[in-house]
Each structure stands twice: as C-alpha cells, then as structure tokens.
Records
---
Amino acid sequence: NAGVTQTPKFRVLKTGQSMTLLCAQDMNHEYMYWYRQDPGMGLRLIHYSVGEGTTAKGEVPDGYNVSRLKKQNFLLGLESAAPSQTSVYFCASSYALTGEVRGYTFGSGTRLTVV
Amino acid sequence: GENVEQHPSTLSVQEGDSAVIKCTYSDSASNYFPWYKQELGKGPQLIIDIRSNVGEKKDQRIAVTLNKTAKHFSLHITETQPEDSAVYFCAVSGNTPLVFGKGTRLSVIA
C-alpha cells in the first residue's frame, strides 16, 4: 500500500520553463491538497480539491494551476517557472467521516529548484 | 482566515527531559488539531491529534492538551530520546484545509 506518491522527487528548471508535478493516492481519499514548504514558513496551501473534477485556491495560488481529472490523481502545473517557486512541494490526501476530516497523509515531497 | 502561531522555533533538551511546544490559533470554529513530525528529507507524519470535544490525549510518551477557551494547544514529549530530534508542526482546521504553524526544530542532546 503506497499511500501518497509524488513524482518527480527532484527537478531543476530554468526560469520560464513549464512542468507538471504528479500526485497519486491509492487510499480512495476524496480530498487532495498541494502545499509548498519554505525555510521558516511552515507549509502553505497552494490549491486543493474536494472531489474529482473540482479545485479551489489556497493561500498562495499565484503562478500555479491544478487539475483533478481522476479521483486518485492531483496534478500541479507551473506554466512559467520563476526563482520564487523554488521550494519543496508536498501533496496530501484525506477523507471525511461523519462530517469530520480524517486521515491526512502526505507524500515524500518534490524538491524543485528554479534557476 | 485562520492564523496559527507556534513557539518556540527551536528547542534543545537533554535526553530524558521533557519538551513542550505550544500553538495558538485565531478561528474559534476550528475543531481539529493535529501534530506532525518531519524528519530530514521526508514528508510530515501525523504523531497525535485531538478534536475539540476532548481536552487531553495521550499516546505513550506523547500528549496533546487543548484549551478551546484560550485558543491554544500544546504538544508534550516526555523522556525524550535522540530519535525524537526532528521538526514538529502543529496544524488547525475546521471545515477548511489544514493551516500549519511555522514549525519547531527539536534537538535532543545525548
């Protein structure tokens, strides 16, 4: 049981290039999230999804787009990478039971450097 | 939106001593308060959580206490061991995604 899998684990981009980060979960979780982690800043929410075909903006959505075409996958896209997007990106998933969110599970992260 | 403050940012303790990390939050509607441990190069892992209908929860050497009136909650680690060294994050949510504190780097000195 893999849980939450992120690919790639590392990537170096040049300013202006584009890329897509893939997150896959095998727990049949309804909710999925993308966070970025920067030194001294904790984890900040970029975008999230409450179900297949739905997405919503988080705290720091600018410069990113997302798609949730299948329940198990959540894609994070950078259309034109900037050095400010150098960060470690974490995907997470969760489910709800009797109205309570449960089972937040994180992937191992993608370390992205934009030069 | 929700604002979570976490203190201290760094904490060093001698092996066997206790460690306490505190978080405050702003939204009185928040009802879920987890704590995560993050080791170098890995994703955050849930170590304990508490919901708003409970004041304290224990799991072996780890405990979390919640004061909803004052809007703060704390992580307590007793009998610390070198393997407890990591970054710890508190988080808060209501009907919205988790909002995280900025983290506490705990160092347990043998």
Note: The CA atoms of residues 12 and 114 of chain A lie 6 Å apart.
---
Amino acid sequence: AQTVTQSQPEMSVQEAETVTLSCTYDTSESDYYLFWYKQPPSRQMILVIRQEAYKQQNATENRFSVNFQKAAKSFSLKISDSQLGDAAMYFCAQGSNTGNQFYFGTGTSLTVIP
Amino acid sequence: GAVVSQHPSRVICKSGTSVKIECRSLDFQATTMFWYRQFPKQSLMLMATSNEGSKATYEQGVEKDKFLINHASLTLSTLTVTSAHPEDSSFYICSARGSLAGGTDTQYFGPGTRLTVL
C-alpha cells in the first residue's frame, strides 16, 4: 500500500526563524512526484512546492525548500524567515506520473509566534 | 489567480434534498478531476476520480448512487449529493489535474464547498 506519513501533527516557529516539516512516503512506483500544499484557515489548498522524483536537485520556491532523500523516501519542507502568513495546515502528498493515484499525509498544523 | 473554481462555496439544505456542486478548471483543460471530502482538522479523503466522458471511479466505501459525479467536459465536473442527510455535512473539495502554459502537470484545487444538511 502506498502511504504518506507526517509524524508531526503540530509545529510552532518563532517569526523570522526557520522550521522544518517532516514527511515520509512509501511507494512502489518509479515515476512519481511529491508536493507540499498549504491550507490556511480559508481552507483553499495552495501548492507550495513540487518535486519530480527523477530530479536529484532539491526544489526551492523563495523561502520554501525541500530536502528530498529518495533512497530514504523522505521529503521534508523547510520554511525560512517564517512569516505570520505561513501559519496553516501543511499537507505532504505523493502523486503518480503514470496514473491518477494521489496520496495525502495527515497534515501538520504550523503556528507562527510573533 | 484561481485556476479552479467551485460553486457554491456554501450551501445549506434540508434533509432529503439533493445538492449539486460544480467544479471548473479555468485556465486549462483537465482530463481528470478529483473529489475530496474533508472533516475538521483532518486530511483530505479522496471520494472519486472522474475522467471526461467516462464513468467516475469511486474509492472503497463511497456510495456511487449517493454521490453522483458527472465529468461533462474538459473543464467541468459536478458532484451531486442525492437525498442528503445530516451525516453528509462536510467540506467538499475538487481538484483538477493539468498544466498551465509552460508549467508542469499538477493538481490544482478548488476553494471548497461547505455543505450543511439540516
């Protein structure tokens, strides 16, 4: 079975500091991609960052970067210079490039302390 | 700007009535759309996957006769909750798989629909 695990239900970070959210996954596929989505109180799912499994280079998007360890099936999200607007639920997800399978983790609630 | 719209954003209905939720991809054609249900403080639960012009594929435990899905075009999928009951009250989210101009294949999510059944 394919699963995505987020072992941190809640995390907090001081404003302007850095925080890392953990995610591990289990898949038998070789062609897949990984995502981090943000869900603020409005509940709109917002794509934060995407990583193709075949790419060795870690994806970055401004203050957001990932540490993709393919062998360990780990895909953590680092948020630098945390801002109050970063407070949200963060979901890690794994999708298939060859099919429609898409799996979400259970989410991590991030609090940013002013 | 939003690439997937969902309508209505909120709906309140009486028990026994049917409710239709629309999901539209605005900037791209989506061959595949997904419907999720989300309970408070929980992750998204995939209900079904719909492909344009074919029958939807439902996840185990989801009643296909209760949650009717129609993917009529490459930009529109609808979810109809038939004979709604209070236990159907939830937040329903759709997503569309596709790529924006010059972009990579990604799932884009609608803003969700809050359904309350009285």
Note: Chain A touches chain B at residues 35, 37, 42-47, 50, 52, 91, 93, 95, 97, 100, 102, 104-107, 109 (CB under 8 Å).
---
Amino acid sequence: NAGVTQTPKFQVLKTGQSMTLQCAQDMNHNSMYWYRQDPGMGLRLIYYSASEGTTDKGEVPNGYNVSRLNKREFSLRLESAAPSQTSVYFCASSENPWTGGDYGYTFGSGTRLTVV
Amino acid sequence: EDKVVQSPLSLVVHEGDTVTLNCSYEVTNFRSLLWYKQEKKAPTFLFMLTSSGIEKKSGRLSSILDKKELFSILNITATQTGDSAVYLCEGNEKLTFGTGTRLTIIP
C-alpha cells in the first residue's frame, strides 16, 4: 500500500528553469494538496483540489500552477523557478478537505527543491 | 485571515516527564483541528478534533479541544526519546498550519 507517492525526491534547478512535481495517491481520496515547508514558517498551502476537476489557491500560490489530472494524480508546476522557491514540497491527500476524514491527511515523503 | 499559533516554539524535557503542547486558532469557519507529528520527513496524523471537551487518546498521547476559548492541547505522558519531533496543529477551513513545537526528549 503505497499511500502518497511524490517524484522526484530531490531536484536542483537554475533560475528561470521550469519543472513539474508529480504526486499520486492510491487511497481513493477525493482531495489533494500541495504544501511547501520552509524553516521557521511551518507548512503553507500552495494549491488544493477538493475533488477531481476542481483546484483552488491556497496561501502562497504565486509562481505555481497545478493540474488535477484524474482522481489519483495532482501535479505542481513551476514555470520559471526563482531562488525564493527553494523549499521542501509536500503533497497530501484526504477523504475530503474540511475534516480530513477519519485519518486526517496523508503526506508524501517530500521533494527537496533547490533553485540556484 | 486564519491564524494558528503554537506554543512553546521548542521544549526540552527529560525522559519520563509529561508535556503539554498548546495550539490556539482563529479561523473564520471552524470545522476541525488536527495534530500531526513530524520527525525527519513527512507529517504523520495524530488526532482530529471537532467537538469541545471530548478527549481523543492514543497510548500516551491525548488531545482535547476548547471551541469556546479557541485552543487545543496535546499531552504526552511518560515521554520517551522516540517522542522527539516537531508537533504541528492545523485549523480548517483554510488548511492553516501552525509553525510547530519542537520537542526534544533527553534520555
């Protein structure tokens, strides 16, 4: 039972390059999320998808785009990477966005992104 | 703007001690409050609280919510070195996390 799988685990980009972070869940969850985590800042929501076919901005959406490809997959795209986007990115999923279901949110293992 | 504030920011105690971690929140449309434990990698779910005064318990960990005073506490009794982690709380509906409490248990 894989849970939430994120790829890649590590990435180094040059300023201005683009890339897509992939996320897939096998728990049949309706809702998926992208967070970034910076030292001293906690987890901040970038975008979320309450259900297949919908996406909404979170607290820090600037510089990112998302696609909910199907119920399983939710990707995060950086069109033109900037050093301020250096962070650890977590994908998560849950039964629904408002209560997280009985088991809260399940997180992927994270992607450590460095933009130089 | 939704806000979740955790205290203390860090805590160092000896093995066997009991600790209480605090989470206060201001969210516009409260639905639930969740606690997570984060060791080296991803957060792992501990508790979800939706109703005031009902304690959730799992082994040595317990948590309770006060919706009137807008806060929650996480208690850990008889702490062990494996409890060392960052503990995060999250308030719905805007999926807002606090910055966490870093708990260190000294053997």
Note: Chain A has a mean pLDDT of 92.
